[in-house]
Every structure is written in structure tokens, then in C-alpha cells.
């Protein structure tokens, strides 16, 4: 017996299953408590897509639970993963979404989805996202993405360091347990803006060539970053001695000495 059909029709049927939620046999609660979303799926289809799901549902230690909690993945990342698993389609709206989806693809061993996410990030990296992309690329050990992020930082340094993402927003609320997930994802999941890590700050300061209008803009960016670090630690931000001490504590001696020698700074 010959059955007529093609790949497009099969994808269409799978897409209908996803949207109509017919015959689902597993529910996922994705994201941290109070910020999670519920998704439903089909074990057999997901197992066919990902070796991680295959082991989860049909391996020797299979999880027979009808509800599975995934606290270490962003809802948008898991939603994009599901859509890709059912339809082979990916609709990314921002670099942030692409990074969160790439993290999910990495966890569930979907190399084609991961590659599409990384391609999107490479094509859409901007000064506002360069530091976040750099740290994400380090976490994923993606050399090509690391290169693209560094290239953006070197060529557009002024716009990178004057963007609000360069500073820590002290009034943000963490929504992830720092122990449960990768350090990058933990630092990324804030209600408000992303904050760069100390290692990224030092990396930028140690670059041989930076595209700046003036060195003062770099000084100002470092001082503002340090002020926000003071806020995070509950210290006075308008006391230069406190700021200088934080610079000494946080930055390497080679870097901090350049800044602590400057006595007059506008706060």
C-alpha cells in the first residue's frame, strides 16, 4: 500500500497538534516560581526530536510524571524550542530571545536550532547587546560568537560603554535561584536590564585599542559601574573613598591604579 503525502503535510499535522493541543500527554512548567508558564506536548514527538527528551521519557530512568518542572529555562526559549520541534520553524524577535532559545537548544541537544540561534545573534549584535553576547558566547564556548562580540566592542566602544546595559541596575529583582542554573543565565534573568560581569569590564579595560571619543567616557562608565556595585553592596555611592576602595577590591591592580589616581570625578 502506498501512502501519498509529503514533508509539508507532515509538518502541517504536527503544527496542528501543537496549536490544538490534541492528544497531549505531558505538561511542562517552565521558568522560576511566580514567573513560570505552562506548556503541553507529546512525549513521542519530543523524544524523536531530542535525545534528552528521549532519555527523559523512555530511558532507564524515565520520568513518568504528567507534569515536569523546568525552572532553569526561560519560557520564551522553551516556547521557541517547542515550535521548532513541531514545525521546523523559528521566529526570533530579538538577540535576547535568541540567546535564551540557544541556551534551551544547548541543554536539549538540538544542534540545528542552536546554529540558527547563533546565526541570528551574529547578524543582529549591536553595541547595546555586545557585552551580553560576549558573556553568553563565553558560556557556550562559541569562538565565532566571541569574535563577533569583541569586534563590536572594539569598533563601537563608546556606544557599548554608554549604554544602560553596561551598568548594574540596583533595583532589579532576581527571578532565578543562582544555584540552580548556569551563572550567565542567572545574571541574565533580571526583571530589568542585564548587567555586565566584572570579568567583562576588566576585559574591555585591558583591550589595546578602543574606539572612544575621549578617555573620560571610559572613566565615567567605570565609575558608574562601580557606583552601582556600591549600591549592590549597600555602600555609599557619593563617597569617593568608598568608590576607590571598590575599584581596588574589584579590579586588578593594573587597571584600578589608572582610575584611583584621578581625584575629581563628577557623580
From TrEMBL:
It comes from the Eukaryota. One of its GO terms (biological process) is neurogenesis. InterPro entries: BTB/POZ_dom (IPR000210), SKP1/BTB/POZ_sf (IPR011333). GO terms for cellular component: cytosol; P-body. It holds the Pfam family BTB. This is BTB/POZ domain-containing protein 6-B-like protein. It comes from Sarcoptes scabiei.
Amino acid at each position: 500500500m502506498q501512502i501519498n503525502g509529503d514533508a509539508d503535510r507532515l509538518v502541517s499535522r504536527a503544527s496542528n497538534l501543537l496549536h490544538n493541543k490534541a492528544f497531549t500527554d505531558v505538561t511542562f512548567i517552565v521558568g522560576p516560581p511566580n514567573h513560570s508558564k505552562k506548556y503541553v506536548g507529546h512525549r513521542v514527538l519530543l523524544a524523536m526530536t531530542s535525545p534528552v527528551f528521549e532519555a527523559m521519557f523512555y530511558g532507564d530512568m524515565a520520568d513518568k510524571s504528567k507534569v515536569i518542572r523546568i525552572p532553569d529555562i526561560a519560557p520564551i526559549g522553551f516556547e521557541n524550542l517547542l515550535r521548532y520541534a513541531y514545525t521546523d520553524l523559528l521566529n526570533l524577535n530579538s538577540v535576547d530571545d535568541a540567546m535564551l532559545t540557544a541556551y534551551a537548544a544547548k541543554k536539549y541537544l538540538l544542534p540545528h536550532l542552536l546554529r540558527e540561534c547563533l546565526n541570528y545573534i551574529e547578524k543582529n549584535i549591536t553595541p547595546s547587546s555586545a557585552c551580553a553576547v560576549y558573556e553568553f558566547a563565553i558560556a557556550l564556548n562559541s569562538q565565532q560568537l566571541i569574535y563577533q562580540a569583541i569586534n563590536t566592542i572594539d569598533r563601537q566602544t563608546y556606544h557599548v560603554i554608554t549604554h544602560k546595559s553596561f551598568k548594574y541596575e540596583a533595583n532589579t529583582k532576581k527571578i532565578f535561584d543562582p544555584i540552580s542554573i548556569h551563572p550567565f543565565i542567572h545574571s541574565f534573568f533580571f526583571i530589568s536590564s542585564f548587567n555586565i560581569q566584572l570579568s567583562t569590564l576588566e576585559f574591555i579595560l585591558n583591550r589595546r585599542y578602543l574606539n572612544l571619543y575621549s578617555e573620560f567616557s571610559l572613566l565615567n562608565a567605570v565609575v558608574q559601574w562601580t557606583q552601582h556595585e556600591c549600591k549592590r553592596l549597600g555602600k555609599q555611592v557619593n563617597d569617593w573613598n568608598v568608590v576607590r576602595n571598590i575599584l581596588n577590591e574589584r579590579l586588578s591592580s593594573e587597571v584600578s591604579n589608572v582610575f584611583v589616581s584621578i581625584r575629581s570625578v563628577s557623580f
